[in-house]
Every structure is written in structure tokens, then in C-alpha cells.
Amino acid sequence: MSRHDAQISQTSAQAPYTFDNSGIQTATRFSALADIFDPGTIRHLTEMGVVRGWHCLEVGAGGGSITTWLCDQVGDNGRVLATDIDTRFVETLDRTNLDVRQHDIASDPLPQATFDLVHFRLVLGHLPNRDEILGRLVTTLRPGGWILAEEFDSWSLRPDHSINAAETSLKAFAAMQAVLGRHSFDGYYGCPPACSRSR
């Protein structure tokens, strides 16, 4: 596979994703997300045993921090396919074992039974057909492959006055909930099934 071997689909332009990755603040947002979440992601990937020679799919590669880590882990005998609707940040990565594909995970096809690892973080919660997409991602795995799906249960965290009397609901958080909700975001997507059933 070569870089840019798939074109962004018309569906992508109409997708209800909340954040515009062409905005000037995108690099700062990606950097902040990497600082906050990369240590946990890397811990999970290390426990899964990512090793040289693996073929990995990074969905919604964003700023490319985990893509870079995967490339370094799998070495010259491995491959990483990094996909996103907007690939400009991962296009600049200088890794010989990296393929970059402009790709709409909601509608564009993916290779079957190909990857030892599929990883995504904070992607499917934004997409209306998230369960269908998850099912399709599973079919891209080789037998015995791993999928690491990192999504928020962002609505279950509430102020707890028994812990700290100063904790109060933030207007900014309520506003963010409203904005995300208008864009089909499911803030419960990452929580256990019992939590989802109790909504």
C-alpha cells in the first residue's frame, strides 16, 4: 500500500464530527491529548505484547504520536497503516514502515484478516454507526489479533460533594455536552454495558 491510496469520500465531508481538524488549534489539541492519554495507551499496548514484525492499523491517527510509537515497536519487518479523514499531521512522519491513508472509517473499505493489532482512541463515540464500524474493524484482524478500543465514559463523572465540598458542575462542561450531543457523540460509549442500560 502506498500513501494516499484512498480518497476522502463525500460522506466524510458530511460527517457530524464535532471538532474541525483543519482548524488552527488542532495541533495544540492533538498535543494535549497525547500528553494526557499516551502513557495509558502505551501501557495497554505494551501489555498486549506489540513486537517486531506486527502489522498494525491505527484508526483516526490524529497527531501521530501513537502511530510513531507503533512504527518504532514493529520495526523494519512490521507495518503500520495510519488512517484518518485529515492525514496532514501523519504525512510528515518519517518512517519507512508507515503507510498513510486518507480514509473515512464510517464508509470506506478496509483490508480483511490483515492486522495483528487495531487501535483507535476517541473515534467511534463521535460516529452514529459506531457499532457497525466496530464490527467491521474486528474483521480486519488476523486470527489471534488484538483490538484496543479506547473510548470515553465521559458523562458518568459528576461532582461529588462528599469528596470535596467545593466540587461544582462546570458550565463549560455542560456546554461541551450540549455541543457534542448535537453532533451524535455518545458519551456513554466507553462505559460498561450495565451503565449503558441504566441511562
Q: What this model shows, in words?
A:
This protein has a single domain (10-150), classed as Rossmann fold (3-Layer(aba) Sandwich), CATH 3.40.50. It is globular. A five-stranded parallel beta sheet has the order 3-2-1-4-5, with helices on one face. The longest helix has 23 residues, at 26-48. Helix content is 32%, strand content 17%. The chain is an alpha/beta fold and 199 residues long. It has helices at 10-13, 26-48, 65-74, 130-138, 171-182, 193-197, and strands at 55-59, 79-84, 98-102, 115-121, 141-150.
| Strand percent estimate | 15-25%
CATH fold-type name: Rossmann fold
What would the average pLDDT be, to the nearest integer?
A: 79
**Run of helices and strands:** HHEHEEEHEHH
Structural descriptors:
globular, 32% helix, 5-stranded parallel sheet, disordered N terminus, Rossmann fold, single chain, alpha/beta, 199 residues
Summarize the structure.
The protein is of the alpha/beta class. The chain has a single domain (10-150), classed as Vaccinia Virus protein VP39 (Rossmann fold).
Question: Secondary-structure map with pairings?
Answer:
Elements: H1 10-13, H2 26-48, E1 55-59, H3 65-74, E2 79-84, E3 98-102, E4 115-121, H4 130-138, E5 141-150, H5 171-182, H6 193-197
